[in-house]
Amino acid sequence: MPLRKDIKKVLVIGSGPIVIGQAAEFDYAGAQACRALKEEGLEVVLVNSNPATIMTDKAMADKIYIEALNLTVLKRIIRQEKPDSILSTLGGQTGLTLSMQLAKEGFLEEQGVKLLGADPETIDMAEDRQIFKDTMESIGEPCIPSKVVNTVDDAVAFAETIGYPVIVRPAFTLGGSGGGIVQDEAELRDIAQNGLRLSPITQVLIEKCISGWKEIEFEVIRDSKGNCITVCSMENVDPVGVHTGDSIVVAPALTLTDREYQMLRSASINIISKLGVEGGCNCQLALHPDSFEYAVIEVNPRVSRSSALASKATGYPIAKVATKIAVGYSLDEILNAVTGKTYACFEPALDYVVVKFPKWPFDKFVYAKRTLGTQMMATGEIMSIATSFEQAMMKAVRSIELGLDTMNLSKFAAFSDEELEAQLHCCDDERIFAVYEALKRGFSYDKVFDITKIDRFFLAKFRHLAEMEKALADGALTEEVYIEAKKLGFLDKTIEQLSGQKIPEKHYASYKMVDTCAAEFAAKTPYFYSSFDEENEAKLFIEENASDKKKILVFGSGPIRIGQGIEFDYCSVHCVWALKEMGYEAIIANNNPETVSTDFDTSDRLYFDPLTPEDVTSIIETEKPWGVVVQFGGQTAIKLTKHLMSLGVNILGTSADSIDAAEDRERFDELLEKCGIPRPQGETVFTCEEALKAAGKLGYPVLLRPSYVLGGQNMIIAHSDKDVEEYMAIITAHELENPVLIDKYMMGTEVEVDAICDGEDFLIPGIMEHIERAGVHSGDSISVYPTYNLSSRIKQQIVDYTGRLAKELKVVGLVNIQYVVFNGKVYVIEVNPRSSRTIPYISKVTGIPMVDLATKIMLGERLRDLGYGTGLYPEGIYTAVKVPVFSFEKLHDVDTHLGPEMKSTGEVLGIAKSFEEALLKGLVAAGYQMKEKGGVYITVRDEDKQEVIPIAEKFEQLGFDLYASPGTALTLNQNMIATNAVRKLSEKSPNVMDLLESGRIDYVISTSAKGRIPARDSVRIRRKTVERSIACLTSLDTAKALVNCLAMDKTIEDVDLIDITKI
Amino acid sequence: MKTSEKAYLLLADGTVFEGKSFGVKGSTIGEVVFATGMTGYQETLTDASYYGQIVTQTFPLIGNYGANHEDFESKKSWVKGYIVREYCETPSNFRSEGDIDSFLKKQGIIGLYGIDTRRLTRIIRESGVMNGMITTEDVAQNRDALLEQIRSYNIEDAVQTVSVREEEYHKAENGRYEVALLDYGFKRNILRCLLDRGCNVRVLPALTAPERIRALNPDGIMLSNGPGDPADNKTIIENLRELTGYGIPTFGICLGHQLLALANGAKTEKLKYGHRGANQPVIDLRKDRTYVTSQNHGYAVVSDSIDEAVGAVSHKNANDATCEGVRYHNAPAFTVQFHPEACGGPKDTSYLFDEFLKLMDGGDAACR
Fold first, then answer.
1. What b/e string do you get for A157-188 counting C-beta neighbours within 10 Å, with b at 16 or more?
2. Which pLDDT score, from 0 to 100, does residue A43 have?
3. What's the pLDDT score for residue B37?
4. How far apart are CA A670 and CA A651, in angstroms?
């Protein structure tokens, strides 16, 4: 069936801010969907609150609303835009749930809007636990013994009938939030209560625990004719028990016999056919390791994280095909874009192995509970492709940016065998490395399997790697051994290090193509991965498709992590687009399967490989690019600069020397002095003693951070010697390549500028002012464009400083500068001569295509010729407020107190004609409940007590009931603000915890001098607010902004919707 | 331990691949083909249709789950040689009885591992299937003589070699139908599919005379898969021509499909590099549905050569539009090029066995 005639205008719902469990993969899916719709000549209306996405780019849709994703807003957009259809399955769980709510309320029918991609019955069958179970039973597909319950007592009663351990799975929550495996009744009561609260329909599933079974996934696609295919099978290296998002996953499944494989494949097809899904669907199954017994775990009747992975693993564009199906096409009518000859109705054959490795935030959240379970905690992932599992695994470990180039985690080397065995029992992010160490020491497969249930097949592969390490260490480094090691994924530097010998003759990697068909057909898609074989298909491809265009290689930003998110993919993709438009051949190298940059048709050629110096060298050897671009790929790409320089590669834009001048403390100080720009005083230290001495000299509070980092990793404000000691102990646990910076901390207004410079002129699209004063990481601050509080003198000074710095640093391209305004004076905090996380949003609200301009400038064009002027660009009529979004409910024991270390995973934007309205939109989009009355609990450190008074007063005037800790209450009461003093956590019950449990508190204002350590009272209170979904404000500035917003007496309904394509 | 003994693949076009030896040592010549299935290597190794061929697996990791007796598709392995990128020495599966190296040794199969199988596949794709030799001898020494040997190799007497010598009778639980299975190299799962559906099956040698079949008076005839060039089977084609006249419901798979077409005046042609894998999309023209099928064939029926009065194409390949099935008008018969019995591969077209049952019940007018 061709395109449906009754579809002309489609509303696409995005997935909102990046949170754990819902990340960049939906930008990839959504962008592909928008393009597929536009290709059909359909009018596309897009709504997504996330401004960092590519899908919210002007080119992607006809109308774009960066607005809160809730029913109120969606209804208004539908009434205003009158789309005839709504595409529900490409915007993650958020988009799907909202679409279903609109459908069930009868709103869509009333407005004459068709629901594409899924119908409510299908979704209920898949998502409502009981209906799903009944449906599975009706077609003879086995489920795990389980029961849907709505109360804790029912949960306990059922658990007794099936026996512990059991798994608690809350219905309709993202990434399985609030669930977990419980061993006994006490744990069950605790987790079930939490899960019931988090579930929007107060429902949890109590399920027999089948931990240890193999976990297998199938990505299935079905069309309206009933044609049904499986795109890819995937096997979790970590068996059932670890969330698939936190598992190391291989594709295709590697340990299944054909009989087992076909049994599970048939089951997946039966399921999707019964559910009647038209589009993409993910089936998760558990298979007993020693029998044919299997069970259906769950089904996601939409495009998911796994489908992004499957798309990249196979080359099959699931989101695009699902979209085409949604608008009427059948699989046999959709061409396979990879071969250009065959149709989408086939199953990809792989001739390589794919490994997905999660990227966890534990390197940032050192106190977080790291145990992996049913609740996903990874912020991102990387994928590697290779012709052997060993090589794929080695590529994976060096792509996750933990500083590893083998599976050796140094700390385990010091463990005794007993300690190591104990470590194997601890299923956390590092277990895989403990497994490796154990196998290396000769633990038997059976022993490791019995503890971890990781299939012996994988264990044998790990041991193979360990054996190679030993062979390198013990024997002569012959050509044969060298090649063998290369085929297993060892880097040259590792080989030389392990063997202590020089490599006789170094080899470059060759490249193989990802073509969906195991070379059965000639493919056109230039999607490559490295291997160590004679034939280099990339080279052949380049020869066959030779053009006289200059080739430029763009480095991507690797896995999504806190501090380096989707924004950098936005920049990389825009750079590629600009290059293509300018007539260059654009090549991209990246390893993140969730992104648009690694879509096979984004660049002219894609290298899906790690971004280490050696990997990159081989790409350059094959491509011989005319130039390379590092400034859009975040720190991952910037880190390559020195190496690229040593290769003599033409680095476009700001020179490596300038990057160094901005990062190197001494050179930077010199530069500032030369420019006559002040900065907070500071020093460079390597040891704890030096740090203490420097802190004493500067006077507390001081700011500590390592140089060369992004996202404020390991950055703290120290108020005392003790803080400095704690910090230096953590930071020196790793090898210190670069020094630690220690600065005087100034508590002023933080201002941020992104500028485009051509070495002479500069253009500032806009100055952003942060609501939270300096000390809260810029990524966690609410950022406002244009500034709302700065005098024109200060702004002029910022423009002037920016110009001086850009010129002196000889910036060619983008630069991000952070300032602090303290006592009417402007200081520079940081200069980053590269793209930043604010580029996408500033580009969108000012209408200046920043990456596009920066790319043109890197290639020699002059700013003054590009039509946007120079200096500070005139402010527009709209105010845009960027509000950070956190994933604290997914991360146990992480202190939610904002500080210099970045904690947010994503962001939303509010755009309106006034600051207050924009802030309201932003806060609502970020998930804040704008309550008109209720309760506020306040507990602040002594320094904040005076300042909190007017905030409390405002809450009181609005009619909120005030509660506070004894100290804070005393201050407030002394200031005539009637406040209930609440017993501290350390005192007897009822105390503050009972108050928070009572449901009477809507907002908590909590600041403390100390934090981080989970056992501290203040941290426990803040964690409680996360559990109870109470908004917790840890900066008085945020609290003030919120209460002002509440006092405005407007709701989101009162603020105009804004189509950003009209800006 | 894996051997480090070198072995080579010498292709008819002179290309040499250096790898290592596994399975049995020595030299073997065969037609080099590639199979793209990611699972089911044991089914491939024991599929008689691969008789005379050196099979290359495009999936790089082979032997992961070892080998067992249950998954044999015939009594032994018929391949002339076996090529993989990497084989697994430490298989892991509850049914595994040993690793694939031991399996090949037991079966007397010469294997080669450690070569760039993707490069080999690309050569076959571009140049078409060609003969080749796996050898543990040094190929440089008398290369020209070897090449001549390789080029002159032909697969001969394929069907007679793999077919049963004596009739076999397999009784189904509650058997309701009597099916004569003409064995041209049948895969065990064809038998299992019939038995599971209540068919008592008499397996007949390939050259069984039509009179014998008429005497058996079966409810249906199953024409099996098998190896080689279909046109070589002159006697069988003659026999089938006569059988068609009996009006007995007939279902053909793969070689059986090709032979019945030849018996009905159609032609077959050799494909450049065949279809061998578990992901071939086939359109069932009557249903307007596309199914993912398991395939293993180097020849195909020429669609245009089918006399309209005799039959019509019922299935076609969605990739290259070659004939994948025929419905006959002159007899209650239908045949398919692919493998509805799967093993290895998807079971999505097993409904065809049910259609065969319907045909034996006298139903399915659409067939005529």
1. ebbeebeebbbbbbbbbbbbbbbbbbeeeebb
2. 97
3. 96
4. 25
The neighbouring-strand residues paired with A250 are A235, A355
Say whether B40 and A258 touch across the interface (CB within 8 A): yes
A904 vs A884: CA distance, rounded Å: 6
CB contact under 8 A, B117 and A388: no
Instruction: Output DSSP code: residue A597.
Output: T
Nearest-angstrom CA–CA distance, A40 and B203: 55
The pTM of this model reads 0.94
Indicate whether A231 and A290 sit together in one domain: yes
CA distances from A913 to A79, A161, A673, A845, A877 (A): 21, 60, 40, 12, 6
Distance of CA A539 to the CA centre of its chain: 33
Residue burial B151-185, b: 16+ Cβ < 10 Å; e: rest: eebebeebbbbbbbeeeeebebeebebbbbbbbbb
DSSP H helical ranges for chain B:
41-45, 100-107, 117-127, 143-151, 158-162, 188-196, 210-216, 234-244, 255-263, 351-360
pLDDT at B31 over 60: yes
Mutate which: A330, A351, A480, A528, vs B, most B CBs within 10 A: A351
Q: According to the model, what pLDDT value does residue A929 have?
A: 92
Q: How many domains does chain B have?
A: 2
Tell whether B324 and B339 lie within a shared domain: yes
Residue A253: CB atoms within 10 Å: 25
Is residue B125 domain-shared with residue B69, that is, in the same domain?
Answer: yes
CA B124 to chain A, closest CA, distance in angstroms equals 9
B200 and B348 share one domain: yes
Comparing CB atoms, the residue among B71, B119, B318 nearest residue A343 is: B318
Residue found by looking up tokens 């077209």 in the block: B349
The secondary structure element, H or E, covering residue A1000 is none
Q: Which amino acid is at A392?
A: A
Strand A682-685, strand A740-744: pairing: antiparallel
CA angle B41, B44, B50 (to 5 degrees): 145
Q: Which chain A residues are Cβ-neighbours of B117 within 8 angstroms?
A: 351
A572 Cβ partners below 8 Å, 6+ apart? A554, A555, A556, A557, A588, A590, A597, A632, A633
Asked if residue A27 is part of any domain, the answer here is yes
B339 is a catalytic site residue: yes
Measured over all CA atoms, what is the biggest interatomic distance in chain A, rounded to whole angstroms? 83
Q: Give the CATH number of the domain where residue B62 resides.
A: 3.50.30.20
Domain range holding A859? 746-882
Question: What pairing do the DSSP bridges indicate for beta strands A935-939 and A1003-1006?
Answer: parallel
- Which residues in chain A land under pLDDT 50? 710-711
Q: Do residues A180 and A309 both lie within one domain?
A: yes
Task: Name the residue among B22, B2, B17, B39 with its Cα closest to residue B113.
Answer: B22
Same domain assignment for residues B194 and B71: no
Q: What is the pLDDT of residues B46-86, one digit of tens each?
A: 999 999 999 999 999 999 999 999 999 999 999 999 999 99
Give pLDDT, residue B269.
97
Quote the pLDDT of residue A874.
96
* B254 is known as an active-site residue: yes
Share of chain B above pLDDT 70, in %: 98
Q: Kindly list the residues from chain B whose CB atom is less than 8 angstroms away from the CB atom of residue A269.
A: 348
Helices of type H across A288-388: 305-314, 318-326
B193 catalytic residue (yes or no)? no
> Parallel, antiparallel, or unpaired: how do β-strands A249-251 and A228-236 relate?
antiparallel
Looking at residue A360, what is its pLDDT? 96
Q: Which domain holds residue B132?
A: 6-151
Q: How confident is the model at residue B365 (pLDDT cuts 50, 70, 90)?
A: very low
Tokens of B55: 């099979």
Picking from A223, A257, A262, A290 by the largest number of B CB atoms within 10 A of its own CB, the best residue to mutate is A257
Q: How confident is the model at residue B367 (pLDDT cuts 50, 70, 90)?
A: very low
pLDDT at A568: 96
The CATH number given to whatever domain includes residue B188 is 3.40.50.880
